[in-house]
Automatic annotation (TrEMBL):
The gene is rpsM. InterPro entries: Rbsml_uS13_C, Ribosomal_uS13, Ribosomal_uS13-like_H2TH, Ribosomal_uS13_bac-type, Ribosomal_uS13_CS. Located at the top of the head of the 30S subunit, it contacts several helices of the 16S rRNA. In the 70S ribosome it contacts the 23S rRNA (bridge B1a) and protein L5 of the 50S subunit (bridge B1b), connecting the 2 subunits; these bridges are implicated in subunit movement. Contacts the tRNAs in the A and P-sites. It comes from Croceibacterium soli. This is Small ribosomal subunit protein uS13. Pfam families: Ribosomal_S13 (PF00416).
Length: 122
């Protein structure tokens, strides 16, 4: 099992798919990494030798922000917005949708399970 950027990537999947298990690397970035190193897209992780895995690891470390660093950057950006008390920060603070979606109906993912209001009879 190959370990890249602190993540055990699955050995029986294709290289492109396996790299997407790393937070911060999607299909497009995975293809660019494979093209840069000359690795065929159809090859599986178990078919890679140690040298190729080392090259992938070094490329990701040098050129991409992934896993813990990326999560930290994202959370710091959200914390900065909340400290500024700008509109987006207030929406984050209240746990409501940030990007202008309607909240009269829907928005259950952000707002949580619907709470019934007691005493709403005729």
């Amino acid at each position: 099992m190959a370990r890249i950027a602190g993540v055990n990537i699955p050995t029986n999947k294709r290289v492109i798919v396996a790299l997407t298990y790393i937070h911060g690397i999607g299909p497009t970035t995975a293809k660019k990494i494979a093209d840069k190193l000359g690795i065929d897209h159809t090859r599986r992780v178990q078919d890679l030798n140690d040298q190729e895995i080392l090259q992938i690891r070094e490329t990701i470390d040098a050129d991409h922000t992934v896993e813990g660093d990326l999560r930290r950057d994202t959370s710091m950006n959200i914390k900065r917005l909340m400290d500024l008390a700008c509109y987006r920060g207030l929406r984050h603070r209240k746990g409501l949708p940030v990007r202008g979606q309607r909240t009269h109906t829907n928005a259950r993912t952000r707002k949580g399970k619907a709470k019934p209001i007691a005493g709403k009879k005729k």
